[in-house]
């Protein structure tokens, strides 16, 4: 799990590499064109010299009319040479991925949107590497796997209930902002809780928010290992701060981790900090019994989780159904 600053630094390196590649390709194109067009080098030099003279005239406060006309004429001759060889007017210019910042990562002193886009792509790859599923879409959640039978827990037939539930979760993702509520996706194993959480993650990332996904057993196991082992770089604190400060935190599979006093303390601190900062969190769990939840995680944590909007997933194990097909 990388911090937002680490993502930014990596994104800037990616953008810088794009710029370097664009300029290298432009140099190759120039060398190839100059070899094919003997008069091209002279025409380029003429544009350069005329450009300098025009700039000097402007800096000295002189009339630039004559110098500007000479520069325009030199550019026209260069364009004509390129056209005669079947090349476009910009054939010698670098072709940047982002025309707004020309792959510098900055526009008018502010970070270009292309850097944020790369950060989103990097976070998406990180989430996909950490989860058992790729970041999915609600469109791939097939309602046919949810039975059309009545269930008293949902107050009617499961399939239309789940159709409404998934539609609500999609709307949650599409309307997400820092004021969004926290959610608890709960229900038996194999009903699509993680799939839905990752579908939300994909949409929220596209909206420009930073999303952190952690598997509860992996995350707290790593924290505990750092806490009771060697941690010279202070990675434990960095991990906690990153998770606590994310625009959206997805804590997957709560209840499958090894329970310990350290886990209880860390989980309480994480939930408390995020609730205090009014940052949305999504928890997925197979625990459907509130009394069991309180028994496992204490009344204080159960109280924090009770502030989450409950989203019950119902039906039969979808993984078993797919395996049987």
Automatic annotation (TrEMBL):
Database matches in Pfam families: IstB_IS21 (PF01695)
Superkingdom: Bacteria
Protein name (Swiss-Prot/TrEMBL): DNA replication protein
Domain AAA+ ATPase: 179-302
Any Gene Ontology biological process: DNA replication
Species of the source: Faecalibacterium langellae
InterPro entries tied to this protein: AAA+_ATPase, Chromosome_initiator_DnaA-like, IstB_ATP-bd, P-loop_NTPase
Membrane spanning stretches: none
SUPFAM superfamilies cross-referenced by the UniProt entry: P-loop containing nucleoside triphosphate hydrolases
Lineage: Bacteria, Bacillati, Bacillota, Clostridia, Eubacteriales
GO molecular function terms listed in the Swiss-Prot or TrEMBL record: ATP binding
